[in-house]
Amino acid sequence: MTKPSVAPGTRRTYDVLVEDVEAGLRSGRFKIGDQLPGERILAETYGISRASVREAMRLLDAMGVLRSSNRSGPKSGSVIVSEPSAGLSSTLRLHIASNRLPVEEIVEARILLETWAARTAAQHDDPAGIQHARELLEAMDAPEMDPETFHALDAQFHLALSALAGNTVIETIMDSLSGSIRGYIKDALDSLGQWPVVLEELRAHHHGIFGAVEAKDADRAAELLRMHILWLYEKATNKAS
């Protein structure tokens, strides 16, 4: 591993490693799936303390760039991954919790992007993507569906619809936006105490949206998705108040 060129005293100590990983990914020196050396070797290579290495690793892990390995010996170290929505979602959740980012504005952004995705998805021809969304829809129709399983499948279904639009940046942002308020919405719906009724309503929404996308009715797909997101937010808001 080539020792990076570092200008001492110009940044926080752990930034040396973080910025070199970024530069390495841009240049191709690092690739997804590459394993970084262990903590001791990184500390020696970058001329920083092992505590600073751990801080950099924690930051990159939170950003969805590294996944820590539980192995020991020569297989120890962290692996470079690319999970941008994980980092974005956790950041958004924290700022929503601090009231810096109002939930209603997250909802507005989600409507803007998801309706665009639904409209675009209805204009694309992706049989494999449609089949994946259909399988998730069928899984959500299973009898005796508990809320935890349903919400997990719901998130996957929305992401599958987003993927049909064919724009990975929009897909990632939408996954982050929905992920940032997923817990807020889930807790509100669960606390209504009418899960069978809520479940049937959600199923009806999903079938309508999917049917419009499959029929390539772009305007209807976008409108049904807008109404679905607003319905969820109104349920959560009414319960909270």
TrEMBL record:
InterPro entries: GntR_C (IPR011711), TF_FadR/GntR_C (IPR008920), Tscrpt_reg_HTH_GntR (IPR000524), WH-like_DNA-bd_sf (IPR036388), WH_DNA-bd_sf (IPR036390). It comes from the Bacteria. PROSITE patterns: HTH_GNTR. Signal peptide: none annotated. Gene3D superfamilies: GntR ligand-binding domain-like (1.20.120.530), Winged helix-like DNA-binding domain superfamily/Winged helix DNA-binding domain (1.10.10.10). Keywords: DNA-binding, Transcription, Transcription regulation. Residues 11-83 form the HTH gntR-type domain. One of its GO terms (molecular function) is DNA-binding transcription factor activity. This is Transcriptional regulator.
